[in-house]
Amino acid sequence: MTANIYRTHTCNDLSEADINKTVRLAGWIDTIRDHGGIIFIDLRDHYGITQVVVYDDSLIAGVGKETVISITGTVVKRDEETVNPKIKTGYIEVKIETLDILNKSITNLPFEINDSTATREEVRLKNRFLDLRNPKMHNNIIMRSKIISYLRKKMEELDFIEIQTPILTSSSPEGARDYIVPSRKHHGMFYALPQAPQQFKQLLMVSGFDKYFQIAPCFRDEDSRFDRSPGEFYQLDFEMAFATQEDVFAVFEKVFYDTFTEFSDKHVSPAPFVRIPYNESMLKYGSDKPDLRNPLIISDLTDFFRDADFKPFKNKPVRGIVVTECGKNSNAFFNDLNDFARSIGMSAGMGYISVNDDGTLKGPIAKFLSEEKQKEMIDMLGMKEFDTVFFICDEIKIVNKLAGQIRTEIGNRLNLIDENRYEFCFIVDFPMYEINEETNKIDFGHNPFSMPQGGLDALMTKDPLTIQAYQYDFVCNGIELTSGAVRNHSPEIMLKAFEIAGYDEETVKTKFGGMYNAFQYGAPPHAGGAPGVERIVMLLTDEKNIREVTAFPMTGNAQDLMMGAPGTVTELQLREVHIRIR
């Protein structure tokens, strides 16, 4: 085998065992330090850093940071005062004999590599190839690779087989906007990039496969959030035949407990993970993706205020949040929290009552409660000295959401959230249907392919807005990792479910023809989920934004500044796909 002409070792290989060896290294110049006749270079590659020493400064004349070089030299022991025990190569350095410049970098870098994460995001993403040289960013991508490899291993241990599904498919109404691709061969026709492999994974179950998974690319033309990228993202997509909701949960509990304990030293909630019905979650936490590290619980005080002498809370839903010893905080704390409440839509601010050390109550609302009602409230909420209860009152459509935002804000301001824990839970029993606020008509509340609880009988006899589905979300620390469901495998139930949401049989056949047709030939009960890969990695790397764990993400405005996408195409390209821009 021919020796590598650029290097004999990587920049993380060498140790005191290599002293006096002649070696060859290659990499980027990370730093240059001129100590008057002796120049020290930190040479960086994918694996680490090695310090090299140059005694002939003519070897690097005109050379700056980020230049790619290959050097030959002798490994020597560092002087005691220059030892760096933080890195593997910190006890040695390489005394350069020859230096070859493989590619010189321009000197006016758009940012310092080690400070890239503090740079404006647009500049970082335009120069992502430099940003990814930052050790923190580089390690995020390495961590992502290791996590994906581990997830594959765990799924294979559970007898899942990996199958790839198509990227070019048909457009279907699945909740977000499709990316569409014009066809050259079929005039006026379009493909769509899959929002998820939803229909294909179900068709694989109909095809007789028992356990499928893949690391699936998904494409959705939707607005950016901290935990959502516009464009492309990846899921650990999986499906199981002859499976119930609990069978799916068992997979989550095995794979995710093992993955999070493998890649983190934080406490991981043990299986079985908590199951919380949707309605309970919205009431107690004000969210269907609750952060269970936050100890605050929301109470329903609607009935309590029904006969109280406080008109703003009469005939409206009222929520309360008790915070232990919060009454010890300054007036500024309560004023700032009220400002936050107004900023999220509570125009009148937020009422509160605190318990004094003598058991009396203070706060803007206390005077409106009789002594009897005051005692009733203290007993009902289990309030003690210096405890405070905050009140949220608004229309039924938004009161829980507002209370959830207040709960999170108080938890953050008082440092109540333990950052050294991963708390998992399943949110179950989602409503099958909801009212579409734009059309004011009944629409699917979650996944249109879910099995309604009660089956066809429920669809035929119940008020649609009371029907629950075998749908579930998997949540960690307030972040929804996935949605999933027990699927509807019956053509009859499928048609009725879509009919209630306003889709006739012809529309179902047109939009979901492959699945509708397949279900006529014997479809097994099946269920699955699709945890988001980027969200998993984001949690395990303690990043706050999904773009920090994606190699080449788009900006929040759905642009790839590095590659110049989206961009224009030629008139010839447009003609070939029968497109004219209006």
Could you explain the architecture of this structure?
With 582 residues, the protein is of the alpha+beta class. Strand 22 and strand 23 (479-486) form a beta hairpin. The N and C termini lie far apart (60 Å). Helix 11 packs parallel to helix 12. The chain is built from 16 helices and 24 strands. The chain has an 8-stranded mixed sheet, sandwiched between helices. Strands 1-2-3-5-4 form a 5-stranded mixed beta barrel. Strands 13-14-17-15-16 form a 5-stranded antiparallel sheet. It has helices spanning 121-126, 128-131, 135-157, 198-206, 245-263, 278-285, 302-306, 331-343, 371-381, 399-413, 455-461, 491-500, 505-511, 513-518, 533-540, 571-576; strands at residues 22-34, 39-44, 49-54, 68-77, 92-103, 161-162, 180-182, 190-192, 211-220, 231-241, 267-268, 274-277, 298-300, 318-323, 351-355, 361-362, 388-393, 421-422, 424-428, 433-435, 442-444, 471-476, 479-486, 526-529. It is globular. 27% of the residues lie in helices and 23% in strands. The mean pLDDT is 94.
